[in-house]
C-alpha cells in the first residue's frame, strides 16, 4: 500500500509543469510494457456543464456512479486522438483512474476538473539487441496548446540518444514523435521493473 502511494505521488509530481497545462503525459518504458501517465484538465465552464449533464438524479451533486460515468466520458475525450504504436503496430491500453479533483463539487461551484490516469500497454515480442520503434501522437486538450510528453526508460532500455529521460514539447494542437529503442538481453534486465525516480 505504501509503495503504491509513493508511486502515485511521484507520478503526480512528474506531471506538474509550470505554467500548468491542460494536458501532460509521461511514458515509462519497461522490458514488457509501456506505462503512460496522463493528466487532463477540464476548464471551469465545461466542467460545470459536464457535472450538470451527469447529475441524473437532480441532486445538485454527483454520486459515486455519476462521478464514475463522468470520469469515463472524460477519459474517452482525453484519449480519442491518442495513438501509441510499437514497430508500427497499434497498442491497446488498459486505463486506471488514479486521482481526480473537481468531480465531487456541487454543480454551481464553477470549479475546474483535473483527472489523472495510468494507461498500461503490453509490448509484443521484442528481440534483444534489435532496434524497436515507439511512435506517439496526440492532440492538446480542447486545442489548448502547448502540451508535452516525457519518456523515461527503465534500466536495460536504451534510446538512440542514450538519454534515460527525453521530453517532447508540442507548440501546436497536434503533436507526435518517433523514438528508436534498444533492449539489452533478458538476463541484463532482471529486476529492472521500475523507472528511476
Provide tags for this entry.
197 residues, alpha+beta, six-stranded mixed beta sheet, five-stranded antiparallel beta sheet, 3 helices, disordered N terminus
Whole-number tally of structural domains: 1
Strands, total number: 11
In N-to-C order, the SSE pattern is: HEEHHEEEEEEEEE
Strand order of the largest sheet: 5-6-2-1-8-10
The computed structural class is: alpha+beta
Number of helices: 3
How much β-strand is present in the residues?
35-45%
The average pLDDT score comes to: 81
Low-confidence stretches: 1-20, 187-197
Which of globular, elongated, flat, extended, rod-shaped describes the shape?
Answer: elongated
- How far apart the termini lie comes to 18 Å
Q: Strand count, sense and closure of the main sheet?
A: 6 strands, mixed
Q: Which radius of gyration do the C-alpha atoms yield?
A: 18 Å
What percentage of residues falls in helices of 4 or more residues?
Answer: 10-25%
Task: Describe the overall structure.
The protein contains three helices and eleven strands. It is an alpha+beta fold. The chain has one domain. The strands form two sheets. A six-stranded mixed sheet has the order 5-6-2-1-8-10, sandwiched between helices. The longest helix has 16 residues.
